[in-house]
Amino acid sequence: MGVTENVQKPLDRMAASLAAEMAAVNDLIRQRMSSRHAPRIPEVTAHLIEAGGKRLRPMLTLAAARLCGYDGPHHIHLAATVEFIHTATLLHDDVVDESRQRRGRPTANLLWDNKSSVLVGDYLFARSFQLMVEPGNLRTLEILSNASATIAEGEVLQLTAAQDLATDESVYLQVVRGKTAALFAAATEVGGVIAGAPEAQVRALHDYGDALGIAFQIVDDILDYGGATQTIGKNVGDDFRECKLTLPVIKAVARADAAERAFWTRTIERADQREDDLAQALHLLARHGALADARADALAWAARARTALATLPEDPLRGMLADLADFVVSRVA
């Protein structure tokens, strides 16, 4: 289920097209993650930011702004803001989830400690608000600040929903829209807003980011039960071991008989897991076609993302954004 060379090319093409602007974003990130008084801040931040991530979210902001004809400097600030928000949430998530690996490397909370990860995450959130103010655009400030609140709300909702077998697909979608899709949607939407695009195009960019983010998270949840560790940057089965009720499990629970439901109750709700439980979970997911059905959902959301682009200007970047939707779901093709 790895990313093939042919699939990787759309993302590489976008990175090449936006190379100069991404270099400016990276320079700004390095400037603003510094601290004169607390050297641990750049140490922790650099560990994650320099870990080889594709910078997908800030690239979405740059692509949306350029697609809509923007030629000013402020999309750089907005893209850096998006990356800081994303990095802050990752630092906090790894503490909450007690994660030990991120992007194939030890997590910051493992290398330093939980306090450092939380406080540096807070610092990055504060930096993101400084950055989002600088363009002087009230609407982009509103979009990004609302997204920050929505992300936190989604994470809190997940705390209560992730181990409750009563959680259904509608609640799952609410969680995903909060913790993942909100930042994708904000990233694309602010690109259109800063460019002064017509309202229909701004809405299309929001809808594209929302659908792309949902597809992205569903794929991530599928890969947890079938991806290679080097592909997903974490250990296979981490969501199961962390007792997270993700979409594949929700589908399997909905189709479970009494004995199967007792298994999910013990392993997810009561967090009572034994040596062979992951293998049994994989067996039940396969038995009920849960992974295949989750993949079909991801493909449908990717198709919605591509459809949303129809009202946007004809441009090679529009094709790249459409290809990105294919890229996201190809990881489970």
UniProtKB/TrEMBL annotation:
CDD domains: Trans_IPPS_HT. Its cofactor is Mg(2+). Pfam families: polyprenyl_synt. It comes from the Bacteria. InterPro entries: Isoprenoid_synthase_dom_sf, Polyprenyl_synt, Polyprenyl_synt_CS. Keywords: Magnesium, Metal-binding, Transferase. The keyword Magnesium applies. Belongs to the FPP/GGPP synthase family. This is Polyprenyl synthetase family protein. It comes from Paracoccus spongiarum. The lineage of its organism: Bacteria, Pseudomonadati, Pseudomonadota, Alphaproteobacteria, Rhodobacterales.
